[in-house]
Amino acid sequence: MQNLSPQELAWIATARPPTPSPLRWGKTLCGLALALLWLLPFSYVLLAIFKSSAEYAASAPLSLPASAAPLLDNIRMAWEQAGMAQAMLNSTLYAGIGAALAVLLAAMAAYPLARMRFPLRNLWFLLLFAGTVFPFQMYLIPLFFGFQWAELLDTHLGMCLLYTAICIPFPVLVLRNYMQNLSLEIDQAARLDGASELILFWRIILPNLRGPMSAVFLLQFTWIWNDMLFSSVLGNSPETRSIMNALLVFQGSYAQSGPNIMLTAAVLASLPTLLLFVLLRRQFMQGLRVS
Amino acid sequence: MNPLMQHDQQLLARIGLAHIKARERARQRRQLRVALRFMAPALLLVGGLLLLPVLYNIWLSFTQWQLFEGRDDFAGWQNYIQLSDNPYFDEALGNTALWVVASVLFPLSLGLGMALLFRRMPGQEWFKSIIFLPRILAPTAAGVMWYYVYAPQGMLNQMLGVFTNMPVETGWLFEEQLVTPAIILAFVWQSCGLVMVLLLLGLAALPRDPLEAARMDGAGPWPLFRHITLPLLAPTLLMVVILSVLAGFTVFDLLWVMGANYPQQRTLSLAVFMYFEAFQKNSWAFAAATAVVIGGVVLAVTWLQTLLQARADRMVR
């Protein structure tokens, strides 16, 4: 019984008598059909990456590959022709640094917004929160010329700065809500003991926010990893391209040797976030819940 | 107590009050200094890299800036007038409207249906994960996948060929009538999972008493859903609708990847039109005006949401 979540307990408590079985069979069949339909594009991709270029051209898209051997060749060609080694490194850097820094800075900004009283508090919050309201199209042209002027165009530093900035506002909102729910008595006790605000924040508030912080970190990490737009405008050199931008460039280039290689590249580029999702599904769902 | 003493006391009280007020003000100023120190990095980054660009973008939209010329020449409303005369813009606007309608209608109805279907099903975790899986893919990667699904020799044509017993070689992404619906289908495939999960969270948070009471009174499943569940779900539904409207309105990545070889690519949506004008034609001011139009609509929708959300929350309580 101890392993049951409150939700599951509630479900058991209010469980209805089982619905008549024909209806239940119908529903299960319906669900199965939907799931199969949703998996269809995946199955096509999973078959394609096991085919050699000649085999892909000759065979029907949903036919089984002759052997699994061409996969290694496909991976090698996609990896080399799309410049994936550099792009993976870049995206790891952007997503890791950008998301971590953004969540930390957001927590710092959320602390006074949630737990201190000072003039124009709501205005300061709105100023930060405004960063989530505008569509990305409004940033592109000014950022392009601003980066050119500051010599940040096509640099790792520029990309990290941008991704950090863009990932700050949402965590501020989430973490502020969580901090408001922590009891204020801890603060007062710590202040009486002479702790400075910084120590209070670092030693008492942050450790209490590990759950929501890792949840928003995961969401922001995935977002940066999946971004193609900003990389294609601000970091489009082979040295600074993000992985999704590299995929886009690869698709548009003449070097790519066919759908099987291209699809292998798409799978490789998606693998890290897919793995993260499979391993950390609970945290992802918590992230959705907090938002 | 003589009047003089009373006066003294009032004076003392007033001095005390002023003193307290001054101390409070000093404390607030101190708090503000500490608060600003905590918020400084976030404010600098958000202000410098997000808010300042928005202001600069608005200014740009009133200049004549194109490649090599007109950077500081004021143009008034000229760019906006040009926008309304541009046939590509009109077509992009029409397609964007189609996107908004489709990206609300299909994910919402399918997502709601799936949420209700999977809610009490054995093995629901599996079903939920499968439907949610496409959402984890980047739109760019999903676009590449679907690009080859729709290819003339791709999966879709092959399956149609099996069903119709004829060879089908439709270029789904190259024909004017087909390209937008085809990309919308890929979008629906990607976005149903999130809508379903959000609705499931909303359903799980519903109060049980009204449902139980109505069931005791012998209400059937449809009236129960129509008159109890649906109204209670209104705040969640509203949030999902707004989310879908904004997603459909600003869709870019999927279109840029899947429409890469479509001759009229710039008409696929407003976001694509803006990107095309800015970074392929270098009509900076004109593109900035397009961005302002997109931003204006997004702000209006967001504002509408806060209004409606307050009303929906009040309705439920």
TrEMBL record, chain A:
<protein>
    <submittedName>
        <fullName>Carbohydrate ABC transporter membrane protein 2 (CUT1 family)</fullName>
    </submittedName>
</protein>
<dbReference type="InterPro" id="IPR000515">
    <property type="entry name" value="MetI-like"/>
</dbReference>
<feature type="transmembrane region" description="Helical">
    <location>
        <begin position="200"/>
        <end position="225"/>
    </location>
</feature>
<feature type="transmembrane region" description="Helical">
    <location>
        <begin position="156"/>
        <end position="179"/>
    </location>
</feature>
<dbReference type="GO" id="GO:0005886">
    <property type="term" value="C:plasma membrane"/>
</dbReference>
<feature type="domain" description="ABC transmembrane type-1">
    <location>
        <begin position="88"/>
        <end position="280"/>
    </location>
</feature>
<keyword id="KW-1133">Transmembrane helix</keyword>
<comment type="similarity">
    <text>Belongs to the binding-protein-dependent transport system permease family.</text>
</comment>
<dbReference type="InterPro" id="IPR035906">
    <property type="entry name" value="MetI-like_sf"/>
</dbReference>
<feature type="transmembrane region" description="Helical">
    <location>
        <begin position="93"/>
        <end position="111"/>
    </location>
</feature>
<dbReference type="Pfam" id="PF00528">
    <property type="entry name" value="BPD_transp_1"/>
</dbReference>
<keyword id="KW-0472">Membrane</keyword>
<feature type="transmembrane region" description="Helical">
    <location>
        <begin position="123"/>
        <end position="150"/>
    </location>
</feature>
<feature type="transmembrane region" description="Helical">
    <location>
        <begin position="261"/>
        <end position="280"/>
    </location>
</feature>
<keyword id="KW-0813">Transport</keyword>
<feature type="transmembrane region" description="Helical">
    <location>
        <begin position="29"/>
        <end position="50"/>
    </location>
</feature>
<keyword id="KW-1003">Cell membrane</keyword>
<dbReference type="GO" id="GO:0055085">
    <property type="term" value="P:transmembrane transport"/>
</dbReference>
<keyword id="KW-0812">Transmembrane</keyword>
Automatic annotation (TrEMBL), chain B:
<feature type="transmembrane region" description="Helical">
    <location>
        <begin position="130"/>
        <end position="150"/>
    </location>
</feature>
<feature type="domain" description="ABC transmembrane type-1">
    <location>
        <begin position="93"/>
        <end position="305"/>
    </location>
</feature>
<comment type="similarity">
    <text>Belongs to the binding-protein-dependent transport system permease family.</text>
</comment>
<dbReference type="InterPro" id="IPR035906">
    <property type="entry name" value="MetI-like_sf"/>
</dbReference>
<feature type="transmembrane region" description="Helical">
    <location>
        <begin position="182"/>
        <end position="207"/>
    </location>
</feature>
<feature type="transmembrane region" description="Helical">
    <location>
        <begin position="228"/>
        <end position="252"/>
    </location>
</feature>
<dbReference type="InterPro" id="IPR000515">
    <property type="entry name" value="MetI-like"/>
</dbReference>
<feature type="transmembrane region" description="Helical">
    <location>
        <begin position="97"/>
        <end position="118"/>
    </location>
</feature>
<dbReference type="GO" id="GO:0005886">
    <property type="term" value="C:plasma membrane"/>
</dbReference>
<keyword id="KW-0813">Transport</keyword>
<dbReference type="Pfam" id="PF00528">
    <property type="entry name" value="BPD_transp_1"/>
</dbReference>
<feature type="transmembrane region" description="Helical">
    <location>
        <begin position="34"/>
        <end position="59"/>
    </location>
</feature>
<feature type="transmembrane region" description="Helical">
    <location>
        <begin position="284"/>
        <end position="308"/>
    </location>
</feature>
<protein>
    <submittedName>
        <fullName>Carbohydrate ABC transporter membrane protein 1 (CUT1 family)</fullName>
    </submittedName>
</protein>
<keyword id="KW-1133">Transmembrane helix</keyword>
<keyword id="KW-1003">Cell membrane</keyword>
<keyword id="KW-0472">Membrane</keyword>
<dbReference type="InterPro" id="IPR050809">
    <property type="entry name" value="UgpAE/MalFG_permease"/>
</dbReference>
<keyword id="KW-0812">Transmembrane</keyword>
<dbReference type="GO" id="GO:0055085">
    <property type="term" value="P:transmembrane transport"/>
</dbReference>
